[in-house]
Design brief:
By secondary structure, the protein is α/β, with parallel strands linked by helices. The protein contains 31 helices and 60 strands. The protein has an eleven-stranded mixed beta sheet, with no helix packed on it. A ten-stranded mixed beta sheet has the order 1-2-3-4-5-6-7-8-9-10, with no helix packed on it. α6 runs antiparallel to α14 and α17 crosses α18.
Length: 1504
Amino acid sequence: MPQCEDEEIIKELCTCNGISYEKVAQDGSGITTLEMFFSGFPRMVGLSLFPNLSTLTVVGQCIEHIQGLEHCPLLRELWVVECHLTEISGLKKHTQLQKLFLYDNKIKEISGLDYLTNLQVLWLNSNLISEIKGLNTLENLRELNLTDNLIETIGDSLDQNNKLQTLNLSGNNISSFKELTGLARLSGLRDLDLKDPLGQPNPVCLLCNYATHVLYHMPALERLDSYDVSSKLIKEAAESTVMKKVMYYNMRVRWVQRQFEECRAKLLQHRTRQLQLPEEKIRTLSYTLKHLEWEMSEVQGLGRKSTRSWAEVPSEESHDPGDPPPSRVDPEYEQKVQHKLSSLRERIKVWEQRLEQVEASFQRDVTLASDRKELSVHFLVMELETVGNIRFKEGNTSDVWFKYCYDLLLIRFCVWEYKPHNITGIKIKRIMRVHNRALQLRFDDKVQALLESDQSPLPSQHYKRWMEYLFYVPDPERSTENREVLHILENGFRSADSYKALGRDRAVPFTNSLNVCERLRIRHAQMRASELGPGASDPLPFRHGQLIVCKVFLGSSVPVREGVPVDSDLFPKVHSVYQKASAKQLTTTQEKPDREVLFSTEQKASCDCRQRQTLWSVFHHEFALPEYFIEFEYLTQGTFQPSCPYKPGSTPSAPTLPAVPVPPDHCPEQAQDDVCLGLEPVLVPQPKLIALDELSILTMARANVLSQITVLNLHGNSLSKLKEISRLSALRHLTVSFNQLTQLDDISHLPRLESVDASFNRVSTLEGLRGLGRLRELDLRWNQLSRAREDAAVLRKHAPSLLRLDGRHNPWSRCDSVRMVLLGRLKTLTHLDGVLVTEEESETALQMNTTSKIDQACLLAHSRSVAERPRCLSLLTAAELLTLTPSPWTNTAEIDPDWTGKITVLNVDGLHLSRITNLEKLVNLRWASFNDNDLTRIEGLEHCPLLEELSLNNNNISSLEGVCKLQRLVRLSINDNRLQSLDGSVLDRLPNLHFLSAEGNLISSLHGVQRSRSLLELYVGNNNISTSRDVYHLKALRSLIILDLLGNPLVKKLEKYRAYLVFHLPALKALDGVAVELAEFENAKDLFGGKLIPDMVAEKLGHSNFTDIVDLELTGCSIRMVDLSPAELFGNLCSINLERNSLTSFSGLVYLPNIKTLCLNYNHIESILPRQKVQTHLTSRQVLYQKVHSSGYGQQNQSRNNRDGVSGNSLEPLMASLEVLHLGHNSISSLGELQLSRLTNLKALFLQGNEISLVEGLEGLCRLRQLVLDRNRIKALSEDSLSHQAGLLELHLAENRLRDLNYLESLTHLRHLKLDMNKLQDTAELDKLEALPSLLELSVVGNPMARRSLHRPAVVVRLPRLQVLDGITVTLEERTRAELLYNEGQYPSSPVGGADLTLPGLVCRVPLGRGTSLTSSLQHQLGTEIITTPLLEEPHHSSKCKKRAGVTHVRSAQSDSSYRHRGATVLPPTTGLLPSGHRGFTTYTSTDPETRCPSHSGPKPPPS
């Protein structure tokens, strides 16, 4: 029957392909292509008839297995699609097969392809494949299609398929970016589909930054998800985005590490405080112990008491004072000494145990802080690797969710169950909210799919009632706690089968009670503590805990049936099961950790928490979403914080420093010390030696000759030097404990010295110690030694026979490795720190401290030849990252002779290198790391010009010399070394340096870093940078976006430090681990914009030698405020020019001690000191007049009120050295508000170009000699305007609105008066100037009365001492002529009453009698003498100028200076006799800058 069926199948096959069934046997060998479509054939038969078949297509058949192809060895293309295949088989002999299409089948596993080495195309889409495997041998595979399968992971399954060009993985369950990272190793991949438009996307495609992540890791891609991504701009944008994220998270990780360092520093301070009392007690007891040991040695060696004085209770058998001392000591005395010695040693032992307790507590807390730091770093790395799709946010009281989570934990904590452990409460230390987008999508999809299922018994509209927030704590017995926490937060919970494999129920366990979920951890911690023994750990070993709060969809839930295992197969159509917590209490004793105690009657009566405590077992791990991670601490009666409910708005208390266990009988401890010290014999204080001489040494040693002394005890003195010790050639034992020694070089070259006790001193180094060949024992406890390597090197060289060394209680750096360092260098030691040195320990130390060299073996083990840095989202250095792969030189027999030239990576961290050598052949080295070695300088790198990244952390390097030739260097890390500066000459030669990290050094200044102009990231935290001037060195770094200065004194010293840096470095994106927000820039601009500080002066002048500055000019710098403090820095500053800035007051200038000249023109000065403006109620009319400054209305009253309220004389004087002040063009309207009277030593005041209408507020300026008020709005002087300026020599009032010259009579010393361009109409006003006997110069040019110079002869006569009038020197000839006219009684006159006579070309003269005024003479006739004159030019008095009084007009700087700098200056008219005998007046224009009629606008500011 099967044979007949096969025959029918063959017939059908022939019919479908147009082949004659009868001739198939003859013609079959010529057939190369066969097709079989939708015939329902159950199997593949008859293929033996077609031995040369190259293409076979089978579509829509009922075939379950591939068979019969062994007769078609030439087959190159095979299609078996839309069939029922369950496996791949029958293809072993088809090695020439190039294309294989097996889509739309039921294949569950990729197998049977190992021999298809020529396969290029493989389609396995639409199957049931869950894992990619079995493709390792397909080296020629070009195209792979695995769409619509069940694949969740990729891993390294495609690493061997280097020729793969097209990969389609759409429609699978890939949800993690980590799975895509492995595809970056496929260098030939050009087309990748994870989100095919015709299929379903992978969950990973729904995550943020999906395309960015893929394009960064696979820059060679040309198509992604059917989109063209070959553009260079797209790749650069992706790379830029990722690089910014890497920089950001690198900064955040550093910030976390620095937080740990700060925490550790606080713990160190706390430990120091806790150690203070035990150390004092040990010092006191040891001091007495040393004395007694000396006494005991004297008693045992000489049989008598020492020369030291001891107070004893007198015995009944005491000798008379005149009797000689006994030859032997009473045996009871020796017993007393022995008893006291034993008591002292016991007390010292007690206090040493206290020290050990403090140290153990410190180490526990440091370990806890370190674990927390590592966890935070893992969180940040997780955020980076997922490109932000996992985010952790630390909560605070301002977050609503924080309060809910806080309350949830406290509500579910029952203190009664912890009562046997003396626990009184719980303290929540940190709550982290977890945003995992991938898990959130999976959770939502799973719940939604369940609710939409036809078989779901749950109504979709009320699904939230089956949601619950439950707790989960990892089981420490079956997993590492932190590792499982990280796995859950990143990937979610493991499947139920994984928990079954761990020996637990086949479900994910949760509970609603903190007490219940903590049981496993508490039991495990108690067991560990019991194994370590009492006193070896915290009395409460489970004090610190962690838990995960999850949102769990319980779905259909039923109670657990007794005796039935928790398994989903036994609970059909159920999503979870629950049971009440047992009524058993936690473990109460450490001796029997498995014993549990029932609730007491009191506990049952006081607490009903047990009734609510429930355990849930969830069968599907996708129904659990971790949302919060909480760290907490149990509080006991010995801690400070009691348990208290959280209150909204309050802030959780900061983590408190640990309380060191202190015994309750603390006071009795001290009492016991007092009793011990009071035992007989009691020491009587003796005088202490300050210096040694021959006599004192002989006395202390009770010897006659220095060369005979073998034992010398100088304990308990105040010696800082041992100068005479070198003469003791026979000395064998020396005790110098409890002195003030800082060095031991004085004991050098003592050939017989065997033991030295130098404990309890201040020895900080062993440098200088020489020639101690027989030294066997050295006690250096309780000193200040810190550098173990250097000191060990000294002892190894100069004390080669040393057997015992005690260096406990010294501030060693890297104290955890001190013992290994000392043992590795001092090979002769048998005892170190009182502990016997074992052979194993000695061998380990020797291996650790053996100085390594970079030789061939080292290079083979620690180098790689990778051509390109892998594109990986990692914070590791390139050298660390690339050396994680296996070494390519495993077989040394096949090494290429030029293998060193191929090395690109070198990582020799922690190899104890003292020098960098043998790198001459590493010409292609690009990434190198020399961390954790003993390097003291950078050398040997000049042969590596291609080096891009160099790491030298944790060495002893003090200079950057050695990297000058690395012009391609991009990243340099030199943390934790001994750099004192950043050499600018070195950085200048590194043009491509983008990253510089020099944290934990001794750098005191950033000078030099400005020469590294390409820097993007700079980390210089934990140095000694203390001055704000260093910030100015960073302003040259225009590309700097990340800066870290945390841990420098500058951070605490500089007020508003963060705003200060943000203002001066506006390009910053992150500062000290925190992103810079836009609001910070605005705030910084408000705080520091326009602030003149010493740093700004240093920046402008190019140096910071402030004491050398005499003149300072900073014009046009937008300065709003001055703060040149401390003022003593500018003690020699005499002149300041701050023109054209934005000052409103003198600000900090008033504190400069020796300022003589101050120029503040073109600012906005309102007063000397900033004043608080008092807002008063003003009428609408007053508001209007205040807006119209030209009116002057209300200003007099305001000024008068100011005078009446606060007089300038009543205020404290300021700037006692100031002599010249320029306040021109400041829009000053009121002099009274300026408080100028406080400048009592002022001699010259320039106020030109303001809006002053009233001269006031100058009462205190008694020494004023020059006053310039040109171009203001002054209409008249008041009686008090210049009443206190009797010594005034020069007064400028040009270009004002003066109509009279009243109140000038007090200026008896006035020599120069400028009244040009005012409104003086009547020449009678000039009569008032006769009261000025010292006047030498007068100018009234531009006034109405001076238009025709009728005033000149009269003024010359009236003012006999006048030398210059209107800018023209009064000559002897002119004065003689004026007196002649005066004697003849003839004077030129103007019209009566001062009216203008408008007769062009005519000037009238009238006779003037002696004793008559200039005005009265104008009452006579006009026509005595008529003189023809040219018309006068009046450029300053056009009709427009006459209308200015009613118009508000503020002159600009240009218009104010036009009068002085006009190209053609109009000069006053001159007079002369014409040939006809008539007197003529001539006006002329001068373009000569050196005109004899200079401008009278006031003196200019001091020259720059």
